[in-house]
Write the structure tokens for this entry.
Amino acid sequence: MANGLNLLFQFLDSFAFIVLAAAGLAIIFGIMGVINLAHGEFIMLGAYATTLANIQFGLPLPAAMLAGVAVTVAFGFVVERTIVSGWLPNAISQRAIGRNVIEPLYDRLADSMVATWGLSLIMVQGVRITLGNSLDQIGTPLGNIAYGGFSYSLYRVSLAGVALAVLLGTYALFRYTTYGMRARATIQDEDTARAMGVDTERTYVTTFAIGSGLAGLTGALYAPTITMVPGLGSSFLVEAFVAVVVGGPSVVLGTTLAGGLLGAINATVSNLFGTFFGRIALLVTAIVMIRFLPDGITGFTERLRDRLQEGA
Amino acid sequence: MSDGLSSRRGFLASSAVLAGTALAGCSGGTASSSDTVTLGILEDRSGNFALVGDPKHKASLLAIEEINADGGIMGNQIEVFDPDPQSDNQRYQELTRRAINQQQVDAMWAGYSSATREAIRPIIDREDQLYFYTTQYEGGVCDHNVFAVGPTARQQLGSVLPYLVEEYGPRIYTIAADYNFGQLSADWVKVLADENDAEVINEEFIPLSNSQFGSTINRIQEADPDFVMSMLVGANHTSFYEQKASAGLDVPIGTSTAMAQGYEHLRLDPPAMENIYAGVNYMEEIPTERNTREGGFVDRYFEKFPDAPYLNEEAENNYFSIYMYKQAVEQAGTFEQEAVKEALESGISFGAPEAPGDEEISLVPETHHVDHHMWVMRADGEHNVEAVDNRVIPETFLKDTVGCDLTQEDEETQYTPQDFYEEAG
């Protein structure tokens, strides 16, 4: 019974970590075709902004977390305008030399990886130079749940609820808002969408800002549980990329299923054989999925559906 | 490895040196110009180990500045070759070659992790370069050219483990980083448990990339040990302490890695480090006269580096070993490296900040290790640190168990506890 509860809590913990680590990455990749290798550093930015707002400026933790999200959204906006779309450098070069210097990185997978990797190096070293090798850390709120010789951090378990809310919120955003409809139209066929009057450029900016904001939210939520060092983003990367690979093209459903599957595998194997084998299981799952379901879970279900429809 | 850039730079450097010493390039690191001595200080100021490496760099500069202000070594001012290796072992290898072949350093201090030491040791040995490795480490390096002056696992764990067995009981749960340092330290826990009538009821090795400890915490609770021995390493693993506190795991923890190196008791919100006992030779808080008095080690360090966050264990090791080097050169009467090594093997001792009163710590001639004054430091609920135990612990593994004697025989080996203890296997 106690071990069943252990397993449940470990699953919730693991599910939350995977979903929150992956959400921002999945949105930016799924809609813009941009692989953001600076995703971990966006998380770091959210965590740092939250910690500084709480410790240096004395904001209460929830307000500090909102500040962390706001900072990352603003930063994401700037990065989109300068690096990803090249709007700002192009506006300047148009005036100076009369032509564009930057081709937008949309749907240029390899190029976007190199550009954002460079950005991540600049961010890590920039933070190290300005703020030093570490920051003081906020304590974890909410205490713990104790049950027969065991106990688990209540805060970490409740993150599973936040992860679920993020997924539902993202679903609602894409399903019921005008932005969501435009975004889906842009993924399906950018040229037609533009012909129908969708400002795709604006859709891309909004998407990147939302994706960045979700990364910032992850950083804000985990700030009280992890060590504040400039390289902290890297500890989210394995889970984030494995989840996107396993989830496939559908952002919300893919991330949910990947979080569920990987969370269950990670929690069960860690519970039975220890952390080391838990991580091995995570990576083995990724390898198996790439080999047999190269489009991820949702890519597979889509193909299955198409085939069934053809048959009918 | 030597690329166009470094050889061009090397050409400039060596042509400058050539003016003073003919054919310096061929003499394999033993030459130096007449009125300066060059020390190579390769310590991480960026990358993974920046947090722990930066104080080593700073304390080295402090020692060098003090010695220079006092007239240098035999009237020679010390010059420093200190590029940032960025916690990158390949860069370490490149910079080590450059330090030896182009900068002609007279002695070298380099590297935080054991992986770094093992990456550059072949180069050090090929060139017979005098090298000080100052990090607390797993122990066992018996090498003619290497002076491993930090405390070993046997000394660190040997100070804290017996204390905790006495205080809390004999059932030990080990968690350790999953690489050579953690694995060998865990073996030492088994050896020391056996010697102190205790037992290791379980052990878990954690990959360095892991930062989530939910299942580890549950497994510790399930085993219900009297205390935990933690040899976790790096920023990711530091998250364990906050996570175990928020999960309500309140078992006492002994460690050779936390607090003294990465000052977790200052960075984390209390009470994450409550009831953690560190077995160390030095941390900023140890209550010795030399360390804490007005104008003492701590004062001098923060006067030179007012913005430095902490003065850590390895920083003191760099500091006192530079003074030991000075003493050895003066005794040898030359900077010639083999002569200095011989002088270091003659029984040098120094009044390091870690030793209380007038006590001096001594460099053991046979093993090139140091018989440290070890402290058990405990953090309370407010993260105040106090000394609960202290004594001199000799480095016995190489000297007695292995029988390493570098005064008689030149070796370049690292011995492990598995070779000598059944329970470590």
